[in-house]
Design goal:
homotrimer, UDP-N-acetylmuramoyl-L-alanine:D-glutamate ligase, 12 helices, globular
Amino acid sequence: MHHPQEPSRNGRSREDLAQATSDILARLRTRAPRIHCITNAVAQNFTANVLLAAGCVPSMTLAPEEIGAFVAGAQGLLVNLGTFDAERREAAEIAVGTAAQKKLPWVLDPVFIERAPPRAAFARQLIGRGPAAVRLNHAEFSALGGGTVTRENAMANARAKHMVVALSGETDLITDGERVAAVANGHALMAKVTAMGCAGSALVTACLAVEPDAFRATVAALVIIGVAGELAAEQSTGPGSFAIAIIDALHNLDGPPLVARAKVS
Amino acid sequence: MHHPQEPSRNGRSREDLAQATSDILARLRTRAPRIHCITNAVAQNFTANVLLAAGCVPSMTLAPEEIGAFVAGAQGLLVNLGTFDAERREAAEIAVGTAAQKKLPWVLDPVFIERAPPRAAFARQLIGRGPAAVRLNHAEFSALGGGTVTRENAMANARAKHMVVALSGETDLITDGERVAAVANGHALMAKVTAMGCAGSALVTACLAVEPDAFRATVAALVIIGVAGELAAEQSTGPGSFAIAIIDALHNLDGPPLVARAKVS
Amino acid sequence: MHHPQEPSRNGRSREDLAQATSDILARLRTRAPRIHCITNAVAQNFTANVLLAAGCVPSMTLAPEEIGAFVAGAQGLLVNLGTFDAERREAAEIAVGTAAQKKLPWVLDPVFIERAPPRAAFARQLIGRGPAAVRLNHAEFSALGGGTVTRENAMANARAKHMVVALSGETDLITDGERVAAVANGHALMAKVTAMGCAGSALVTACLAVEPDAFRATVAALVIIGVAGELAAEQSTGPGSFAIAIIDALHNLDGPPLVARAKVS
């Protein structure tokens, strides 16, 4: 059973998705959604600064006594498994429960699950609890039991779990099981900055907080971070200055360069 | 019972406070006080770099076995509630006890207490243990039971608890219950960098370590970080480059620009 | 029993060590070793970015369920005691055990052990478990029971424990008990950036992962970070911009400037 990309069916041209991305960024600026992040210690500071630059209000607490209240008051939740420990596992259980109650969108970023079986098992369990989107690379997709990395397998997984699958790579593949988009924005320096992927997943969460169509929200987030990366690379002399320039670029980004530079197909 | 600001009574003109600020910064450079910080994971790195740029020696351990020794060897203690967890609560109990024994000044920064009741309750308990200063925004002031945010309420709280209250906002209000100062230095980009407020509170702690008058120390810290922010903004193209430039500005700051730029009234 | 540096015996001229450093950096670029770091929360982000800039793949998990798997899949292990807590002590026990089984080189960085006795005791116990190298400053050397800081004492310690001792200071002293080198590269701003020393120790680990001679690997790492620091200082206006510029410099560094600038004797 194949579900190839059919432009007539998903009804999204490049122009539609680029314009939607511009609209979603504008909504981030005006609504300033609160995004709660359970993320690894390496990524917390950079992720918070990326969310602030995009117009959001980040929070990061992990304490079981209060994470429920923080998530209940937020508009989106990120669960990143980059440092997998008892504290974050407990935090994730509570936070995902609150998100379900409040019908908040949440995103799973199963970092490095191919490196340790307990992490992969926990990720599989979380997938069963209904994330709006999962963002992962090819090795993580396979470790999650997704099978060989193909467009068809990504679509089948998205359909089976009723979620958006965003496969990162040279070109990102985004699918909700029916629609498929490829996003080719970005720059090689993005792979040389720690937590860049984690921050990208936080931005997916942010876009889900202001756009009910999870497919469009995910495409928008990946275009936004990719275009910011391209703009930042023009100002950078290496990964250190790049990491700073991408925050500036995100902060200064508005619709026209997004529409002009979006590489979505 | 009103305690309006009376220049004749608090004996502080703008020039006096600006010069005191310059003197306090010079003392930070020569004395290099050790400042122990219990702070949230998002803020640790930036806070340490701000303290180093100001001339201090930061430490950050939370381990119950050794935090007493670290605080006993320090000249000031910061307790920031930005990530409120069992480890940090236990660390705070021990550290505040050691600070009391050693008569060290300590500062409470009750981040986000309006978002979760247990955090607010813990903050109220800590207030009872005698911080030299508490630094908080308007929402946090109300959550702490301070009542409506007015100058009179801030003064009443400061007087009742024998501490300096530093209310952050467009203009910062600092009072010890008798004296009141308003500090208008700073830049809008400061709100777009995570941990900027936390680092400001660390700088309050640093100034308390070298200046026995807690009111003057707190004013000095907020002028120093505000002027550094103004200088940084002139070199920045967004919040990423701003966060870097403010570290450089703090490192390079000396008396004359402080005296020239201080907006204290 | 004296073991003075004997050029004829250690067979290392400045040119030999400078060329070895260049070769080791080239190997980092081509082999991209996985380096697992148990390090303090203040240092995690900067350390990861330094390792990425040098061409390595960092990981940082502390969870007991999976740290064994991460270390088993890595080519080097760093144990930094900068935030000494129960979680990291347990992580270190497991990780060092795995490193021994897999015959992986590991490095101990006993940060601030002079400030708290329990930390010093734990460091002494870890020394007994066979690190390839220990990197520490003068206060830490004394706290570790190394005696007065002299070249002879450093050599005696290195010989007794079959490890490389790298004493940081204005000039770094590196010895394996037989050979001794002094590395004079670096810049004063390195002391004004938090986690710079921690990141340097991570780079020692990285070089050990691609060079079996622990003495040459350690010298190489300290020359590399020192030269990167010198290049960064030329682009910097303070410690903020310096911390960014050193990441760029590491990323862009190759053999010729290393060979030209290495100050090894």
